[in-house]
Amino acid sequence: MSFDLPDITIDVTERVAPFFEALGRGVVLVQRCKACGDATTYETTRCDTCQSDDLVGEEASGTAKLVTWTVIDRPTHPAFNGIEPYVTGYVELAEGPWLPARILIDRADLRPDLAVKLAPATASNGTAYPAFAQA
Fold first, then answer.
1. What is d(CA 67, CA 100) in angstroms, rounded to the nearest whole number?
2. Which backbone phi and psi does 107 adopt, to 5 degrees?
3. Measured distance CA(113)–CA(65) in Å, rounded
4. DSSP strands (E only) in 1-135
5. Burial group, residue 3, by CB count within 10 angstroms (0-12, 13-18, 19+)
6. Which letter does DSSP use for residue 95 in this model?
7. What tens-digit pLDDT sequence spans the chain (135 residues)?
8. Which of 28, 45, 1 is nearest to 100 (CA)?
9. CA separation (Å) from 101 to 38, 70, 111, 129?
10. Where are the chain's structural domains?
């Protein structure tokens, strides 16, 4: 089974380009707040904890736990035809932030707090996007 999205193009803005470029190398980036030390997702412009805008990108471990998910049995867009059923959800990175991602795990094995690891997938334009498999 392929986990790529054959008919989807992901448009990457300059602001989040480093995040998607890192995914292409098999690395997930977070931002670390210089003021309080908490980590946040890459698209965020301010720290979720203290609201500081003094953030610096850093490589995350790529490990996480499954928080919540949904199984898509019918495509929500024609580009998804032929890849259903698929799973999408949120993972909690070991560094703390939650990240939306494709979940590459059989539905029978899904459970809260399941250990997962980064396994980036690829859109039709070659852009990697967040996906996680069972650790």
1. 10
2. -55, -30
3. 5
4. 29-33, 39-40, 55-59, 63-72, 86-93, 98-103, 115-118, 121-122, 128-129, 131-134
5. middle
6. T
7. 345 555 667 788 998 999 999 999 999 999 999 999 999 999 899 999 999 999 999 999 999 999 999 998 887 777 777 777 889 999 999 999 999 999 999 999 999 999 999 999 888 788 899 999 999
8. 28
9. 21, 11, 15, 8
10. 17-134
Residue 113 structure tokens: 């707090």
State the Cα torsion 37-41-42-43 to the nearest 10°: -120
Look at the block and give the residue holding tokens 């480093």: 18
Global pTM reads 0.89
